[in-house]
User: What shape does this take?
Amino acid sequence: MLAGLSVAGGTMAMAQTKPAITTCEYWFDYEFDSRTREPMANEGTLSKTFDVSTMSKGVHSIGIRFGDNQGLWTPPFIKSFVIPQLPHETFDGNKIVRIDYWTDDDYEAHKSVVPQNDNVAIELDFSSFYAGVHSLTYQAFDERGLATAPFVKHFVIPTQAQPEAKSITAYEYWFNYGQRVRVEVDPQTPLELKDLVIEIKDVLPVTITQDYVFDPTTEMVTQPDNVFFGIQAFNDAEVASAAMLSEKFAFDVPVNPEFITLEQGTVHDFANRGAGTMQGFKVNTTPGDSVRLSITAGGQLDFYDSDGKSVKADKSTDALGNTVYAVVPTSNIVYALLWNVPILVNDMQIAYETNMVNGVESTTAPTGVNVRSGKGWFSITTPKTGHVSVVSAQGATVVNDNLSVGTTTYHVAQGIYLVRFNNNEVMKVLVK
Assistant: This one.
């Protein structure tokens, strides 16, 4: 067995006048002390064949370095190669001569079987096996004595014998990934469903998208979707047939947000309704008022007026990590639709309060800065970055913060606070 190698000498560690590579050294398997040194026949180039026929099967390495006429050496070049376990000859007549098999990883109790006409038939007695999951492992050997990797199959011994099924007694159908509807039928084989009409109702869209349409007159949402229908039969042993699924078809799926009317100053607990659903909220208010909704982070909240027109909301995050929406209503009712809530979010909270602009004996706040407050909180909206410090009536500093562009909310106790912007403008804020 021979291995060929062609390399070019590397750069020297130091530059010399007219350097020339004159020597090479090589070694195998990191045995540097057993290296062989040879002169370079052609300056800068080595072409050599190595005899590796006596080396063991497996992975080996060869290292080589070059020296110049100044006594300097290149870094070693290391290459790996494999001497295969099997020779290259083909074995066209090779065949499987034995198969070993055993159960539940008990190799010591394995048995062997010899193929007959290149086929193997094994009869296994599982009558003494306990109920539960078991494994069957088998491995084939050829004429050379070489074996395949073990193949493992699992099977279950049931806790009790299954009753013999005689007829079909029920079927279930569903749309998309929604709940199944079960229909009991008279025992029959096969099941015949003639002139069957199934109303498309109680369908959940696969997901809610921005294409949904909200109708305030019915307080319902319509979501365009591609719906599929599934059906499955069950016999009297409650064993199901394979499910049959239809092609998808376009359908405007009605979605009921099940609106909850929010009361000012009250925290409402609710649960995530899951994929393909919406949760609706509505607030009775006066046009021009400022409405503030604080909700557990997660999902998207859209706002509409009584005519179903979209209402813009200023979005921010308070110190507790809740998402805060500030809305100025244009009608006497504000609708809010929550959707796209992550599936891992379970219980949520939402609170509604009316914002109140304060200025008790205050100087004018900086241009564009807006301060609002409510029960246990106040917020600062600014069009540019800056610094804010807040001092309580007792003289304690409760906020010393660098403001980012947008709305920042702080939760504080009831009282009057002095808010100073950029160590200059001051205004008083009342927090109820």
User: Anything to note?
Assistant: The two ends are 91 Å apart (CA to CA).
